[in-house]
Amino acid sequence: MPGENLSRDEARERAALLSVDGYDVSLDIRSAVGDRTGDEPRTFRSVTTIRFRCSEPGASSFVDLIAPSVTSVSLNGRDLDPGEVFDGTRILLEDLAAENELIVDARCAYSRTGEGLHRFVDPEDGEVYLYTQYEPADARRVFAGFEQPDLKAPFRFEVRAPEEWVVWSNGVGERADGVWRFAETKPISTYITCVVAGPYHYVTDTYTRDLGDGTTLEIPLGAMCRKGLAPHFDSADVFLVTKQGLDFFHDHFDYPYPFGKYDQAFVPEYNLGAMENPGLVTFREEYIFRGKVTQASYEARANVILHEMAHMWFGDLVTMVWWDDLWLKESFADFMGTFANVGATRFTDAWITFANRRKAWAYRADQLPSTHPITADIRDLQDAKLNFDGITYAKGASVLKQLVAYVGQDAFLEGARRYFKRHAYGNTRLGDLLSVLAETSGRDMAGWSRSWLQTAGVNSLTPQVLLDPQGRIDELAVLQEADEAYPELRPHRVAIGLYRREDDRLVRYARAEADVDGPRTVVTELAGAEAPELVLVNDDDLTYCKIRFDETSLATLREHLGSMTDPLARALCWSALWNLTRDALLPAPDFVDLVTRFGHHESDIGVLQMLHAWADSALVHYAPRSWRRAGEEMLADTALRNLRAAGPGSEHQLAWARFFAAVASSDADFELLRGLLDGTEKIDGLEVDQELRWVFVEPLVAHGYADEKALAAELVRDDTASGKRHQVRCLAARPSAAVKAQAWAQLVESDSLSNALVEATIAGFAQPSQRELLVPYTEKYFASIERIWAERSIQIAMTVVKGLFPALQDSPRTLEATDAWLTAHESAAPALRRLVLEARDDLARSLRAQANGAEAQTA
Fold first, then answer.
1. Catalytic site includes residue 551
2. Among the listed residues 551, 589, 583, 558, the one whose alpha carbon sits nearest the alpha carbon of residue 573
3. 411-449: per-residue pLDDT in tens?
4. What are phi and psi of 438, to 5 degrees?
5. How far apart are alpha carbons 97 and 699 in whole angstroms?
6. Active-site hit among 4, 127, 308, 533
7. For residues 119 and 103, what is the distance between their CA atoms, to the nearest angstrom?
8. What is the DSSP letter of 827?
9. What is the tens place of the pLDDT at every residue in 741-774?
10. Contact at 8 Å (CB) between 105 and 47?
11. Which residues lie closer than 8 Å to 61 by C-beta, 6 or more apart?
């Protein structure tokens, strides 16, 4: 893996020397089907022609390619010896001319890790499906190229595929003489080129729009998935959201969609949520729902569709120069996904989900030792791979939400419009965007950028209330704090809400907006108001901060959180309470108690499902060991009670059913799950479809109530790719030392599993109820991870290093073992050390929270 790296300095030098005029890429993927003999990797032919210029004739450079072998290399008609110029990751190019033509004929390998050209065989019918995934730098696994975002060029693809297949790429394609040829693209970066091929189920539609100048924009729409998923594919809803999004972005961006057609492919074994390849967006196929799901799942899918669509402008049309400014596309797409969801679709409460779910991701990432400014220091491709994180996405989006409030929505959107027109098909840095926003808003963007984009860490805001003798507010102040390591106190535009009980409802009776700056800010607008029972700083979620409470407010929430009427305010309070729990300021048993008493009042299904996840995490990681058994019983009893009380067939019933399976802990609980599976038990309105069956099967297996024979029978019911993944996860979840040893060997000692099955095996391996079985693997983990990092692809290495960290061995001894590895491996790859440091921080946080809970129990 280290040989596959590319540094920022190397990329800068190459960009200063070269400019690319165009690529012709010819792929022969007929080898994807049929038998293969021998032990060599299954390969395909890749022939790439690159036309490029060099500003210093006679200079040397290189082209990127990761391939088992290179057949020939021709530079300006001169044949080069592949054995001399190709080292497995790069092809050396010497004595360049002012204008150059390079032709590389290579044998490239199909992928089983989701990187490059991924090959998937559907176990249901034996059909083969291919798709590409490149970000940040895996196009070089499919064709030779200059693998950096600022060397844009037009691409022309041609693909030879099996006769019965259809092939798609970024441009419109036609088949003639057995070859698929695709229209030349606009200038784009290598990482967003794409090929999808196979016997996909494909449906079409059309988007039309009157541009107001006498012309009509017509965009062909397509959506595809594996044939086995076709009965579940609700393409009509996908097209509905797509059209709503295209209308929304055309209304606000004043720049017509620039890439012709708009296909969306839902593909198997995908590592990401989705990827913004212009004209051919790829998604993980789990966004096609095989069973009943809640509206939160449909909202999440719509958000991803709109996020990727926003990239057509932020990222594809205008691209960052290097991965330092990854936020220029990801932060904007993350913000725009929710902005468009609220403004264009049926999901008008999506900002609640953003406040509760996306920001939780950001708050966690911003308190890790690896936190970084939104504009990060990305030294190389390994840094880039790890920076697709909660800072770049969710914190960046949160800060943009505040920026809209700071400069005004009209100025923000006008800045975006100028940005697109000024830099179309080009590359930009931070200053390019700030300059247009300064133009349109008249605001000091440099100061704002220093505070919000170029510093790390999250501030905490706490209300301080002083009352006069009449019981009214004499003074209300907001106290701002920062972590010692990141002491920046930022300017915040916040709303402060005052709440009190009225007819057994907790309602807001006063609100003021204020600019908070420095350690203490007095909010004069609320002086004289009646004394509040709850003060909510950052009401309406205008800024990015951790909300804290004064003693009166916290006491009110402990007794009356369920009676708070405003769903966004309630979500903000839940998020704040979770942050208090993670920061060891609220004992985990107290948080679990709040969920058991007030969770059933939660009307927003996305918030409810987030509460379920937090409560489970509080029990597994943050609660003292002596209380865990009692906590298990509390959560299981609560889940079952609310499952039975929920409206028959409602999404709340489904959410409580899934949560009940996750926290089931007694013989009676497991007997009920077994009865729901075999039909001897019924809960009115609960449909136990195949996906829910697997949800019920896993805890039965993990606790020894079902065996391998039961799993085999379940796979017969669901002999599909999805069913196979579920079965693999459940097989690894069995409570047996031999099972754990086998799973460990498959993950660590072998690379035979595909990326999806690696994830499934890890998910089954680490069961909270099996901590004792996992004890031997702490030492083995630290003995293995440096070798894994060196030998595996970065995607698989990241998955294994993160997934197998012994977090369930939550004792000081595990913390000591982690520190010992870090001390002994100071020269290990920085990206690997970052993953271990992050896991160490999570473990230390767990231990602090457990100690806090134990102290509260004895107090």
1. no
2. 558
3. 999 999 999 999 999 999 989 998 999 999 998 898 889
4. -65, -40
5. 65
6. 308
7. 26
8. T
9. 999 999 999 999 999 999 999 999 999 999 999 9
10. yes
11. 14, 17, 18, 54, 93, 96
